[in-house]
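From the pipeline queue, job 12 of 40. The input is one protein chain; the requested action is below.

Action: predict structure.
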Amino acid sequence: MRDTRESRLLLVLLIAIAFALITVDIRAGEESPVDGARQAAAAAFGPVEKGVATAVDPVANAIGAVRDSGERHNRIATLERENAALKAKLGSDDQTRSRIHELDEMLKRAGAGQYGIKGAEVIAVGAAQGFSWTVTIDAGSKDGIERDMTVLNGEGLVGRVATVGPDTATVVLANDPDFTVGTRLEKTGELGFATGQGDRALSVQMLNGKAKVNPGDRLVTFGSRGNKPFVPGVPIGEVVKVDPSRGDLTRTIWVRPFVGFSRLDIVGVVVMPPREDPRDAVLPPKPEVKPTPTVTVTVTPSPSATGPAKPADE
């Protein structure tokens, strides 16, 4: 269309008419005189608008998806952080519950034996002071710890105090090859001497070569003169193997320690011995072995199996 004087006048006229129709439509509201024209236009141009919308929707959806994916990514990252924090909290709670259980078991053992103990935490593991199997605890002379005191936990005998500093002490463990402790056999009271064997079972020399010992029997500490280095009655371990008796004066048995020396955490140093020997009182009750039910099956022979055989020609 050429830019002439007539075309400009026509454009101005059309714009004026459009504004006039808009003004009339707004003022008339629902009774607008142009409503019919609007409906006719909607009927004519509706399919075209729908087709255009259908064509444009995938693009709009894609843009929305990209935007939403960013939002989802942020939400996922937030959830992952919250999940990690929750796992850390649960892990911490599990560790706390585990330590509370250890402390509770240790207090039960100390109460059963009437031992006065000083609680401590293992803060280092390693060879120290020339010993092969040692740990360092966070209690020392300031806490009343002295050399040759018995160390235990909720499972049983841990070892003895070897060296003491103002704030820490070194404990030689019961599985150290240079460690020896007097033992008493559960129930019978037979005496012996247990020696550490590293990560293997303790070797115990029974003083009575004819002592009756069976796998599953348990041992406790016999005690020392003046209760140093060992107080009596502390659980040591369970018999796992008995060497055959050859008529010797002594007899060797092998004992699995109750204590897991590779997972030590909370321990107690016996700073006050019991008034009386607790003997077997500190050992937990043995679990009752329920008898295995015996099923008896009775087979009743059928008449066909016991009756006379029929001739083959019948």
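Job complete. DSSP finds three helices and twelve strands in the chain.
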